[in-house]
Amino acid sequence: MTTSVRAAMVRNFSDGFESTSVEIDRPRGREVLVETKASGLCHSDLHFVHEDRGLPLPIVLGHELAGIVVEVGPEVNEVAVGDHVVGCSVPSCGACVECYSGYRVNCLNQGVAARRPDEPPRISRNGEPVTQFVGLSGFADHALVHESQVVAVSKDVPFDRAALLGCGVVTGAGAVLRSAAVKPMETVVVLGAGGVGLNAVQASALVGARKVIVVDLNPAKLQLATKFGATHLVDPADGDPVEQVNALTGGLGADHVFEFTGAKQPLVQATAMVGRRGTTYVVGLQQLGETLDFAVAPGIGGTINFEKGVRGVRMGSVNVKVDIPYYAELDAQGRFNLDDLVSNTIALDDITAGYEAVKIGAVARNVITF
């Protein structure tokens, strides 16, 4: 038996979002039915609205969600009806070598969270399957999710804040704390002061980075970054950002440079901002087919001589069940800022306008509330 729910669906790449109704199945096995209360508008979803990235249409996007558990499958044991939960796009089996090592983000058996081909789809419309995005599909008033992708949080956390814990927070802060393991007295550069980058800023401040340098083209976002612990602001309109960072670091460069914009030019600039033994972290979702060229020969660019590195980061190397409650607790203690991440709360029917603000960089995060 299925239930009709409201959703923002993408039917084809030229039409964008369509407000409609879809059918959602009952939970089976380890599945959890969540009444969605809030869903963040992450820039990454836009790539799947306008580009063919291998996921069949129609599709319901959305991967930052928070809500209330309203029904559970017979094998669920980690959450219960009535729990407030946050969803995350990282499924895991909990039993492979990566999971046992604490790297659930690299689980070798992520397919265990999906339904088998002989089972009905979780989401459908008029009897035809609708693709579920990264196991979540948060742009709907209910979501049917594998229990490895949800975690209970305190009921004191407002839903619009809690939703951001599942992607923007764990990705940005996790890039600093988990992927890079930034230490006190190290210098950090963050390119892109959006809903993900701001969390890298506050995580860097939290661990006692010597300098937290933020680069962005939007003066308002640069000023917002100061609320999260930025110590120095770099506007490319004022001159070459590489030269500005070089001046701020006394010619030494940074220990860690995080690229969150997903654009090629800032990524190239990021590799030029690192100092000796420094690392550039590719966090923002780049365009399909994008490549990065950098000098590796000794004496040219210092990549070998100075032991510089480039590393990809997926979802801040998140361990879902550990990290999301941790950041929620930091916020409750007043040591983490979720409030200023939420720029606006909007209705589901306003998703297109909400994403227009995201595209022009006018907001940190718009959040749909139900």
From TrEMBL:
Would the keyword Zinc be found if you checked this record's keyword annotation? yes
Where does the record locate the signal sequence feature? none
Looking up SUPFAM superfamilies in the UniProt record yields:
GroES-like, NAD(P)-binding Rossmann-fold domains
Q: Which PROSITE patterns match?
A: ADH_ZINC
Instruction: State the Gene Ontology BP annotations.
Output: formaldehyde catabolic process
* Cofactor(s) required, per the database record: Zn(2+)
Q: Name one GO cellular component term.
A: cytosol
Gene3D superfamilies per record: Medium-chain alcohol dehydrogenases, catalytic domain, NAD(P)-binding Rossmann-like Domain
User: Which residues are in the Alcohol dehydrogenase-like N-terminal domain?
Assistant: 30-154
Q: Which Pfam families match?
A: ADH_N, ADH_zinc_N
List the Gene Ontology MF annotations in alphabetical order: S-(hydroxymethyl)glutathione dehydrogenase [NAD(P)+] activity; zinc ion binding
Domain Alcohol dehydrogenase-like C-terminal per the UniProt entry, residue ranges: 195-317
| Alphabetic keyword roster | Metal-binding, NAD, Oxidoreductase, Zinc
Tell me its family: Belongs to the zinc-containing alcohol dehydrogenase family.
Write down what this protein is called.
Alcohol dehydrogenase
Please give the organism.
Answer: Rhodococcus wratislaviensis
